[in-house]
Design goal:
Elements: E1 11-14, E2 33-41, E3 52-56, E4 61-63, E5 69-74, E6 78-86, E7 89-98, E8 103-110, H1 141-158, E9 214-215, E10 221-225, H2 231-242, H3 254-258, E11 274-283, E12 286-298, E13 309-316, H4 327-338, E14 346-352, E15 356-364, H5 368-376, H6 386-399, E16 406-413, H7 424-435, E17 439-446, H8 453-462, E18 467-470, H9 473-482, H10 484-488, E19 490-501, E20 506-512, E21 518-519, E22 532-535, E23 539-548, E24 573-582, E25 590-597, H11 608-624, H12 634-642, H13 652-666
Parallel strand pairs: 2-8, 13-14, 13-16, 16-17, 17-18
Antiparallel strand pairs: 1-11, 2-5, 3-4, 3-6, 6-7, 9-20, 10-19, 10-21, 11-12, 12-23, 14-15, 19-22, 19-24, 20-23, 24-25
């Protein structure tokens, strides 16, 4: 599949078919009800971009544009609740009446947050259809009542942390007060709740060295597994915003920073599971070098078209989960996810502390009050029998297994597995065995102080799942509502990328990030070698920094290296890209490949996606104090990012600019003067 030469060298590649799925709702359908409106600041009337607007029931969600406008479409009819939230403003909630074919316009005014109070714990307004089963060793009601004053005192203390998440479980119609701070990084005086510096002495991070340059004539192949995890970015944000300190270098995984953001990479055509785009420009930190961006975009799948789900929430309720940024936030996050479930979906809840137990047996997704009551009943206390919890969760998932469905355990924890089957090796072997049966593992991290990042990343990787870090309700909404397809549905597994460099064009190269995802060249063709999974709608970005070279190739080897100069080596090709993947239930991989021509464009003329990705990579290298960053400064990162925010419908790119400002200040630099 040849790449058409253009000045910017943007290539879209359609890969072999796996699925044929519908995407999106029919907005022109007369049976659809619409709600439109504008969100403004109470008082001065200024528009509020990036506010989250959602309807309940139904779960339709969108965000306001730069003028504060929004539009929602739903097939639900009757009375519904419209909720509007923004990290800098108090939430708003109101009733709307939905009729097929109707359009209702709403004007919303939000009041700025001056002080964030702890939200009261909400309770469901409708009794559950059946009581949740208590888990083993649960405290009797009389004991819980006697301990409640101390628990409430602890919650009052911890409620000052972490974006004002509070202690209550959000239920439709209640708990609407307060605001959630996930954006607005670093401008003005920090809020009191962000001043507390959490100790990170017990947090665990795997050493991730910077990638070194390799000579193309000696090592022409670069092979790695894709990575769709985003935990590193939200964890880095927690260090900068909440703890007001720079993160340790090993907490900064540049590939996860890059993959946190949405991009405009074209989706595949036909039945392909994903499409690929390539772009080539000079490297801003060393204009003599070049940057190649390889972007992989998974096919998006509408929630209504997702296969039936069999989900097991595995919740850590050990004593370390007391604080507001752990179990209380966890419960509210899973409540958001449960509100996206359909009647054909099933959810179970397993907990573990000193022992593991079943709180909720497999329950239909339309039994919302039953699910919410079970979540609301969870309390923290005891040690952490993580291995026992995983075994029970997988047993529950097997008993409720859905053929041709999405069978998944969702582990929610701070990662502190300190009792029972706690060795990494034993846990990994169990998870690898279970994934072969079709039960995948998603890991959601919470909290600080003893956050075990390395262990959680390893468990998710081995479980054919993904790893996200939840630092706020806004992040929970992003991972569990906006990106529910990618979080829960795998469209391609064991996805590997291999790049062969042409030594007549490339003297040396380095892969930016992916330190713990690199593979041996022989692993690319080995279908037994595990690699990363791609979820519906997921995006993967990889950046190579290249040192150009002239002259003919030397040595022996592959497409570009023979005893005599090959036509490919002299063709003007910079490199040859290969991708290998399997269908979610397949055992034999498929292959696609294409060459990339050596036709770089200027960075100024590059796409917004490319310029923004380069800024994020520079942000990561500055945080890691990379030796490859040269003299590039915070001001240049900020200028490049600010000029590439684009439409930014979710406000994520603008929030990144604010985060970079805060990081620059923590580095002792005034971004405008450095």
């Amino acid at each position: 599949m040849a790449t058409r030469a253009t000045r910017r060298t943007m290539t879209t590649v359609g890969l072999g078919g796996l699925f044929c799925l519908l995407a999106g709702l029919a907005w022109a359908d007369g049976s659809v009800a619409r709600v439109t409106g504008q969100v403004r600041v109470a008082g001065n009337g200024a528009p509020i971009p990036g506010a989250t607007v959602s309807l309940s029931p139904g779960g339709a969600t969108t965000q306001t544009d730069r003028a504060g406008h929004f539009q929602l479409s739903t097939t639900q009819t009757g009375r519904a609740t419209l909720t509007v939230g923004h990290p800098r403003f108090k939430s708003w909630r109101g009733a709307v009446s939905l009729m097929s074919g109707s359009v209702q316009h709403v004007q919303v005014r939000l009041s700025p947050i001056h002080a964030v109070a702890k939200e009261p714990e909400a309770t469901p307004t409708v009794a559950a259809q059946r009581p949740a089963k208590p888990y083993e060793r649960a405290r009797p009601a009389s004991d819980r009542a006697s301990r409640r004053p101390r628990a409430e005192k602890r919650m009052k203390h911890h409620g000052k942390m972490a974006y004002g998440v509070g202690a209550g479980l959000m239920v439709t119609g209640q708990g609407a007060g307060g605001g959630y701070r996930s954006h607005g990084y670093g401008h003005g005086r920090p809020a009191p709740m962000m001043r507390r510096d959490q100790s990170t002495s017990r947090e665990g991070y795997e050493h991730t060295p910077d990638g070194d340059f390799h000579q193309a004539s000696q090592r022409p192949l670069s092979t790695f597994s894709i990575d769709v995890d985003t935990a590193s970015f939200s964890n880095v944000r927690r260090f900068i915003v909440q703890n007001r300190r720079l993160p340790p270098a090993d907490a900064v995984r540049i590939e996860e920073l890059l993959n946190y953001f949405p991009y405009n990479t074209p989706e595949p055509s036909g039945n392909a599971p994903f499409g690929v785009a390539v772009e080539l420009t000079p490297a801003p930190w060393n204009p003599a070098h070049r940057l190649v961006r390889i972007a992989v975009q998974g096919r998006k799948v509408a929630v209504k078209n997702l296969p039936p789900a069999n989900l097991v929430f595995l919740v850590d309720v050990s004593g370390s989960m007391h604080s507001a940024d752990k179990l209380p936030l966890l419960k509210r996050s899973l409540a958001m996810l449960s509100q996206q479930l359909r009647p054909q979906d099933r959810v179970s809840i397993v907990v573990y502390a000193g022992a593991a137990g079943l709180v909720l047996p497999p329950t239909s997704g339309d039994e919302q009050q039953t699910i919410l009551r079970a979540l609301s009943s969870l309390r923290a206390g005891g040690s952490t029998a993580g291995g026992a919890g995983l075994r029970l969760a997988y047993n529950v998932a097997r008993r409720a297994f859905r053929k041709n469905g999405n069978n998944r355990v969702i582990l929610c924890t701070d990662g502190d597995f300190n009792v029972g089957q706690s060795s990494d090796g034993a846990l990994v072997r169990m998870i690898e065995q279970e994934r072969s049966s079709g039960i995948f593992l998603t890991v959601l991290g919470f909290g600080s102080g003893n956050y075990q990042d390395a262990k959680m990343q390893k468990l998710a990787d081995k479980g054919n799942g993904n790893h996200a870090y939840i630092d706020s309700l806004m992040e929970a909404r992003k991972v569990l509502v906006e990106q529910i397809g990618g979080t829960l549905l795998t469209i391609a597994k064991d996805v590997k990328i291999q790049v062969e460099f042409n030594p007549s064009r490339v003297a040396s190269y380095r892969l930016i990030g992916y330190a713990n995802r690199k593979l041996a060249a022989r692993d690319f063709n080995d279908d037994k070698k595990d690699a990363g999974e791609l979820g519906a709608g997921h995006h993967v970005t990889a950046l190579y920094e290249i040192v150009p070279a002239g002259g003919e190739a030397a040595g022996s080897g592959l497409r570009y290296q023979k005893r005599r100069s090959t036509s490919a080596a002299a063709s003007g090709e910079l490199m040859h890209v290969k991708l290998r993947w399997k269908s979610p239930r397949g055992s034999k991989s498929k292959l696609a490949s294409f060459p990339v021509s050596d036709l770089p464009g200027s960075l100024a003329q590059a796409s917004e996606d490319h310029r923004f990705a380069v800024a994020v990579a520079g942000f990561g290298m500055l945080l890691r104090k990379s030796k490859h960053i040269g003299s590039w400064r915070w001001s240049e990162v900020l200028a490049l990012a600010q000029g590439a925010t684009g439409a930014d419908s979710g406000g994520h790119r603008a929030a990144f600019v604010q985060l970079a400002h805060a990081a620059a200040r923590l580095s002792g630099v005034r971004p405008t003067d450095d």
